[in-house]
Structures are given as structure tokens and as C-alpha cells.
């Protein structure tokens, strides 16, 4: 029996009104946790409800995916929000998805901030603490997903909630363990094999090779695939298969 397990998560529910984004129903076959957009950077009430039901039907754990209020920028543009504002917008969005999940007789497993909010909280202790506190106040049993080794993980631990250190299949890393900004060349991995190889390195060796060709120690509790990527389904299939062939179990959450 496998002694290694990892959570495979994907950002989903990012369609909005008449606009369809991603291939959610197919991707759900290959993942263990779904981070569902809560309406600020993507998603709308109908999409949230539909995505929750699809995830439940597939036995996939559900998490809130709160972002900055920036539909036009898909939540990937930084905003000068205060810690108090970050606390409020995270609380609001968790509450929204909590309602849809609760209405289906289920419960949230985790919270994972999105895009710029996620990256800002990775390096800003005050912002990270405000987000962790919002998660704790809603439900201290929720798991906070954050960039491995980041301030968000540290804040979650200080406040007493469970955390899951997240790594990325489809993003390159810098030598300090941060993600390469999307504005820079080679920020996105486009080859599914390269992405799967990076995931295996992070899980088995506990390291990631940076763009500067240095090794950075990293802990991988959960692996993210971006659902809006053009080849997200192919990535999910490839990584799922690679993990299974290596005897690594794909399981939601963190022990």
C-alpha cells in the first residue's frame, strides 16, 4: 500500500454569465479538491451552485477561492487593500460559497485565496494574518491553502488552523521559492510532461528546480492546476496518471 499521498487541486467555477471558462466537468474526474471562485474575480451565483453540485457528484472536496474584486483583471492585478479590507472580502466570499455548499447538505473543506491576493499574502505577514483570521472566524476546522513556505502558511499556523502547503504544476519558480511573475517569460509551463516531472520532483525529492537552475527545498501537501489554462484537462490527466503509476495516492486535504 502506498505510504505517500498528495492532494490534487484545481481552480474551478470561473465562468461568468454567458462566458464559459475551463472544462470543469471533465477536470473533476482527475482531482481531489476544487477551489471554487466566489464571484469577485470570477464566477457568479449560478456557476457557484452548479460547480458545487458537480464536485459533490464526483466526490471532490470543496474549497472557497476568494479573490480581489477585479472581474476585468481576473483577480490577477494587485490592489492596495488594507488588512482589514482583505479580511472583509475573504469573509464575505467564504460565506457565499459556504451557503451554496450548506444548501446541498455538504461542508467546505478549505479556503485558498486567488491570484494577486494569494501572491500578496505569500509575502505580506499582516495581509496573511488578516486572511487566516477570517478563515478561523468562519470555521476553525477549515484548511488554509497557501504557497509552500509562505507567510500565509505561517499565519495559519500562528492562528491555530490547519494548513496545506501548495505547489504548482504549471508555474515556474524563482530561486527564493516564489512563483515567477506571469509578466515574465517562462512563467507558465506549457508542456504537460515537464509539469508532471516538476510535480514528481517536488513530491518525491522535496525540491523544485528554479529558473536560475538552483534547487529550492519545498513541501508539497497539495498540487495546483489552473483550470483556466488552455491545456488544463491534459495537465490533470497527465499528472493524475503519473502519480498513480508511481503509487502515490491522490487524496483531499491534509492529515
Short summary:
The protein has 8 helices and 10 strands. The strands form 2 sheets. A 7-stranded parallel barrel has the order 1-2-3-4-5-6-9, surrounded by 6 helices. The protein has a two-stranded antiparallel sheet with strand order 7-8.
Number of strands: 10
Number of helices: 8
- How would a crystallographer describe the biggest sheet? 7 strands, parallel, barrel
Average pLDDT over all residues = 95
Textual characterization of the structure:
With 255 residues, the protein is an alpha/beta fold. Helices cover 39% and strands 17% of the residues. It is built from eight helices and ten strands. Helix 3 runs parallel beside helix 5 and helix 5 packs across helix 6. It is globular and about 40 Å long.
Task: List strands and helices in order, with pairings.
Layout: E1 5-12, H1 24-27, E2 33-37, H2 45-58, E3 61-65, H3 83-103, E4 110-111, H4 115-123, H5 125-138, E5 143-147, H6 151-159, E6 162-168, H7 192-205, E7 207-209, E8 215-217, E9 222-225, H8 232-245, E10 249-250
Parallel strand pairs: 1-2, 1-9, 1-10, 2-3, 3-4, 4-5, 5-6, 6-9
Antiparallel strand pairs: 7-8
Helix pairs in contact: 3-5, 4-5, 5-6, 7-8
Task: Give the key terms.
255 residues, alpha/beta, 8 helices
